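Quarterly update, task 2.4: farnesyl diphosphate-bound model.
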Amino acid sequence: MNLELQIPNHIGIIMDGNGRWAQEKGMPRTMGHKSAIKTLKELCLHMADVGVHYVSLYAFSTENFKREKSEVDFLMDLFISSFQKEFQFLIEKDVRVCFSGRREPLPEKVLQAMDKIVEDTKNNQKFTLNICLNYGSHAEIVDTTRKICEKYHKGEISLEDITEEYIQKNLYQDLPPLDFVIRTSGELRISNFMLYQASYAEFYFPKVYFPDFTVEEFDKAIVEYHKRNRRFGGIQK
Ligand code: FPP
């Protein structure tokens, strides 16, 4: 990959199209999710190599609980096995894993697998992988507001302390703003993903389904990011 390219500091990935990928191949939808794990592993290794510092993955939204129970159960088991097996390489690769989202009503076994991988990678420094699991941006804003109100009621902070920076620090994770959001499968929506963090992000919507979002597709996305002129509300240079 051309090292002169600007690399986004924080990338968000909405991993869409797993179900369609599988259905178009005559397989059950769940095979798409399984195949996505292989894609993710390769992408994580590549992103660490090219110097991305933060990656936020939309793994399961608060709304995804509305899916068929069999698919939800499959995904929960897939999370457990990924954190216990497939994602163990992250420990050696110096990747820190953290999670964004509500713990309720995730099954206890999923929570245990999440807590274990967080603990095992807590001192890692190469990059941070923030997995959004049972995540919704509206829920995050509600939870953050409650957290801040509680501190205010206890007299720990005054109204003047509530700044944009303070709100960011009290989101599920205190991460830098998103620079680049990629949503695979050609859908042009943000679907309740990191609305506060994405306020000045650049967006990219490749047509490929997530299992086909290879390292080569990722490099194409970075070339596209490099061409963008980010002005943050200022004047074009
Ligand atoms: C969207 O595709 C994908 C999901 C709701 C699940 C994403 C989950 C994974 C990739 C599993 C692993 C993640 C981690 C971090 C272990 P879709 O099912 O909505 O596809 P469709 O739009 O074609 O139906």
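Highlight for this quarter: The chain has eight helices and six strands.
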